[in-house]
Design brief:
Length: about 500
């Protein structure tokens, strides 16, 4: 009889496991997904013909295997190509909006920058940068120290502080310096300068940019109709090859016996529960929920750490504007401290096919929040009105231009690296002890994984399962290597 793999979650990680198993083995994959959608955080939401991407997903990876895989699913085409199932090569243009002016991102030293900042602030930036280059803060205890040491006090206050604090909801001085090391190591004023010269000699057609910092990447792939298009195509392939995808089913428990997970408790939309027997379990559900659902003897320290794992949630307000806004960006970091708006996506510029009528501008206003807080609890109508007011307040629209809108709430968009995370090793030791249980993906590993990392973790997990290896260490190496550490986002959050 065929062995069965229960895969929790139909995001990039879960789908990759299923696809790998079908191609490489005769194990039967069963994906259990609690929502009605394919793609997890990387899905596309269609509102009245206008498509929203939760965040704005660049398809870029330093792994050739992942880049090739994406292009096998959706081949690259040029704008205007009539084929539907294709990917576009897009140019990244993202700027910072601060003091009612646009600044290039990554920040480039040029006359426009100096003009926008003014003589006084520019001088202060230069002086404080020079001071910290000679006298860095030691020891480097907080994220604030980390940024100031690399950028100087004034540049940090101008371009990093407000946005980072909007994202995480806590002061940079209260965040660990390790966070900066994971997300922004390798990005500095000197590197930004070096990058500027490098881009001047780079070919304008290549999408292979292995040696370029991730945050500085200028071109990326993007499915014609948003990221969900690619993941829906993967799910179709899985079903054609015999995999099973159960939408609107939620995993609520795992039964264990000695060092194995034996079956998984699944709840459908009507609240009916049933058990699914499993030879392997691959989990991309939040670690917090997984541990809470394990019917096993869980050490007290593990239980407490898992309960206290923190997350940051996310809310996007889609607004349809009845004219073409003069915005060239894919997204804009909103650094203005008087609004809660964190980032503005211009979906037209990700792909013109995201918008039903290209005479309109379809934007996504991104708010970082925590479930239960003031923003999260607002009614949709309230939140939409709030978002319109904020965009008008910073001078980007007139409220009368907005003709449609929608609100999307996304739970656990960002796994947090504080609280229970400090004891994550205990959790990992406990879950890794179950021989046939593999933690994969972003919330599945409580790691700031992008799509490619989630897929690479899935591939690593399948390797281990098929080799019957009990050593899970290779799985945890994904997105932990120096190459990845050194490549994260300058202003701390991309996705
Ligand atoms: C704002 C933002 C921007 C981003 N930008 C980028 C980018 O530009 N490039 C990039 O590569 N990545 C980006 N990412 C990251 C990307 O979204 C994730 O890496 C990727 O979606 C993670 O895939 P996953 O399968 O690990 O997890 P998820 O996408 O979270 O999928 C997990 C799935 O599990 C399901 N699930 C959860 N609990 C249960 C349960 N109990 N039972 C059954 N199902 C369950 C969920 O519903 C979900 O569908 C961004 C993320 C965000 C939030």
């Amino acid at each position: 009889m065929k062995k069965v793999a229960v895969i929790i979650g139909a995001g990039p990680a879960g789908l990759t496991v299923a696809h790998q198993l079908l191609v490489r083995s005769d194990v039967q994959p069963i994906i259990i997904e609690k929502t009605g959608d394919i793609g997890g955080l990387s899905k596309t939401v269609n509102h009245n013909g206008n498509r929203m991407d939760i965040g704005g997903h660049r398809f870029f990876s330093k792994s050739d295997r992942i880049m090739d895989y994406w292009q096998q699913i959706l081949p690259v085409a040029h704008l205007g190509d009539e084929r539907e199932d294709t990917m576009l090569i897009r140019e990244r243009i993202s700027r910072i909006y601060f003091n009612r002016a646009f600044f290039d991102y990554p920040i480039e030293l040029n006359w426009a920058l100096l003009r926008n900042l003014g003589v006084l602030r520019s001088a202060k930036i230069g002086l404080t940068y020079a001071r910290r280059a000679c006298f860095p803060i030691k020891p480097e205890l907080s994220l604030q120290d980390f940024y100031i040491n690399r950028f100087g006090d004034e540049l940090y206050n101008t371009f990093f502080k407000a946005y980072t604090e909007k994202v995480w909801g806590i002061p940079c001085s209260a965040m660990s310096a390790d966070w900066g090391a994971q997300r922004a190591k390798g990005v500095s004023v000197m590197r930004a300068l070096a990058h500027f010269f490098k881009t001047m000699v780079q070919s304008s057609h290549s999408i292979a940019q292995k040696r370029v910092e991730t945050s500085l990447i200028r071109r990326f792939l993007y499915p014609k109709y948003g990221p969900g298009q690619l993941w829906e195509a993967v799910a179709r392939t899985i079903e054609v090859q015999g995999g099973i995808v159960m939408l609107k089913h939620m995993v609520v428990g795992l039964q264990t016996s000695r060092q194995h997970v034996t079956r998984v408790l699944v709840c459908n939309e009507q609240g009916e529960q049933s058990w699914v027997e499993a030879d392997y379990v691959f989990s991309s559900m939040p670690v917090k929920d997984l541990v809470a659902g394990m019917q096993a003897e869980i050490p007290a320290a593990v239980k407490t750490a898992a309960q206290q794992l923190p997350y940051r949630d996310f809310l996007t307000v889609g607004l349809l504007i009845d004219r073409t806004l003069p915005l060239i960006d894919t997204w804009i970091y909103i650094q203005e401290p008087e609004v809660k708006l964190g980032r503005l996506q211009v979906f037209n510029n990700w792909s013109p096919y995201m918008v039903a009528d290209c005479r309109y501008t379809w934007v996504g206003l991104e708010y970082f929040c925590t479930q239960g807080d003031d923003l999260w609890q607002r009614s949709d109508a309230d939140m939409r009105a709030f978002a319109v007011r904020e965009l008008a307040r910073i001078g980007l629209i007139d409220p009368s231009w907005v003709v449609d809108g929608t609100v999307l709430r996304v739970e656990k968009a960002y796994p947090g690296y504080w609280g229970g995370y400090e004891h994550f090793d205990e959790i990992r030791k406990f879950t890794d002890g179950y021989h046939n249980l593999f933690l994969i993906g972003r919330n599945g590993m409580h790691r700031y994984n992008n799509m490619d990392h989630s897929m690479l973790s899935a591939i690593a997990a399948v390797d281990l399962a098929l080799k019957n290896s009990h050593d899970k260490a290779p799985l945890w190496c994904v997105n932990a290597e120096k190459e990845y550490h050194e490549s994260r986002e300058q202003s701390s959050v991309q996705g």
